[in-house]
């Protein structure tokens, strides 16, 4: 069960009217290494992970939804006041025809979110998958920061990138916890 | 103390079609080095923690566009 707090995890401000940025940001919304994929993967994997680290997947999976909401806010702010002509110029013509001003779960290339979520039921395989996913999300944020000219968006993206670092750190610690010898009987 | 950005210079051919944009950087943030986080690490105040995206100064690895400095070199060269 969840409680919803009606505010964003970190303030989202957009200073430059650049609908093209929305096309790039949508990668983190409905892309393979985006926030939706991360949230669904962790919340799904948590059932078959040892109970010591189940709470970690639960917490991080929940936080990913808060990140999803931040990305959605950025995309919405960048597109809500754009004319259909401006959306077309920004490469969002196809999107507009299919979804209007609605945001949608697809990647920057327009491929629909296809639920290709890894979940193996093997704790080490799943945690290594999650570490890799956090590093991929971190690099995606870096590439978006590199092509952005809006210091306010860069600030929010810098926050999200730092969260990927912290998540990666915690997953690495989870692996260490699972590697520890538990209740080992000492044989003399 | 680890550095969080590394650089390398790939081979530049005299026949390359575009002027070289070297060196090439990649990020190696703190989580690659920390191991299991030790107890008692220094903390940010709650407000600073929000601004930094982490409670722990030791986990804060900010990012800047590496092309910002490279572009200038590239322009000077060419």
How many strands, what sense, and barrel or not for the largest sheet of chain B? 2 strands, antiparallel
Whole-number tally of structural domains of chain A: 1
Structural class of chain A: mainly alpha
Q: Would you identify the regions of chain A where 5 or more consecutive residues have pLDDT less than 50?
A: none
The fraction of residues in strands of chain B falls at 5-15%
Q: Evaluate the radius of gyration of chain B.
A: 18 Å
The general outline of chain A is: elongated
Span between termini of chain B: 36 Å
Q: Helix share of residues of chain A?
A: 55-70%
State the name of the first-level CATH class of chain A: Mainly Alpha
Overall shape of chain B? elongated
* Sequence stretches where pLDDT stays below 50 over 5 or more residues of chain B: 72-78
Q: Between the first and last Cα atoms of chain A, what is the distance in angstroms?
A: 48 Å
> Using only CA atoms, what is the Rg of chain A?
19 Å
In short:
The complex is a heterodimer of chains A (188) and B (78). Chain A has 188 residues and is an all-alpha fold.
Structure write-up:
The complex is a heterodimer of chains A (188) and B (78). Chain A is mainly alpha-helical. Chain A has 7 helices and no strands. Chain A has one domain: Ferritin, CATH 1.20.1260. Chain A is 63% helix and 0% strand. In chain A, helix 2 packs antiparallel against helix 3 and helix 6 packs antiparallel against helix 7. The longest helix of chain A has 29 residues, at 51-79. Chain B is of the alpha+beta class. Chain B has a two-stranded antiparallel ribbon. Chain B is elongated. Residues 72-78 of chain B have low confidence and may be disordered. Chains A and B meet through helix 6 and helix 7 of A and loops of B. Chain A: It holds the Pfam family Mn_catalase. Chain A: Belongs to the manganese catalase family. Chain A: InterPro entries: Ferritin-like, Ferritin-like_SF, Mn_catalase, Mn_catalase_dom. Chain A: This is Manganese catalase family protein. Chain B: It comes from Sporolactobacillus kofuensis.
